[in-house]
Specification:
This protein has 168 residues and is an all-alpha fold. Helix content is 72%, strand content 0%.
């Protein structure tokens, strides 16, 4: 229950940030994708059914607030969670560098898959124009990710939740 409440609070703050800041910053690629950072942390450090359902709920909340195609963000966040989970089970230690790398590729994969599902796979032939901005957003998200991970770890310590996966 504490895990659900903690991530719900961070998701509300992340969604508020991601929906309010574009009105202040005209270049969307400068805004980190906080939702993917939260889902990656969930996948790397929390295993089980509840974290998987939380990842789906995070995507569904994103769909409800800003999704153009219902269910697409829920599907993509669940996939990012599953990849993060698989990476965490294969590696001995999941540190901030691993998390930032997963965030970088998660932002790119999510954006490309969203374009492919929403506009058809033929729309991917024009990725050359969106790739520089997408790479910039992925890099900024990867740079911000360790700070968000540390904020989550401090919040988990304060609430008595485990900071690391059980096997670390």
């Amino acid at each position: 229950m504490r895990l659900t409440l903690l991530f719900a609070a961070f998701v509300v703050l992340g969604l508020a940030f991601e929906s309010a800041v574009p009105h202040l910053v005209s270049f969307r690629a400068l805004i980190p994708n906080l939702i993917i950072i939260l889902v990656v942390d969930l996948g790397l450090r929390h295993h089980g059914v509840v974290p998987a359902m939380l990842a789906f709920a995070i995507g569904y909340a994103t769909d409800a607030l800003a999704g153009s195609h219902p269910g697409l963000n829920a599907f993509m966040m669940t996939m990012v969670f599953m990849v993060s989970y698989e990476i965490s089970t294969r590696l001995m230690v999941t540190n901030a560098l691993v998390g930032a790398t997963v965030v970088f590729f998660g932002v790119i994969a999510t954006a490309l898959a969203t374009v492919a599902f929403a506009d058809g796979f033929n729309a991917l032939s024009d990725t050359g124009s969106m790739l520089p901005g997408l790479t910039l957003q992925a890099a900024i998200s990867a740079i911000v990710a360790p700070f968000i991970f540390s904020m989550l770890a401090a919040s988990k310590r304060m609430t008595g939740l485990p900071v690391r996966a059980k096997r670390e």
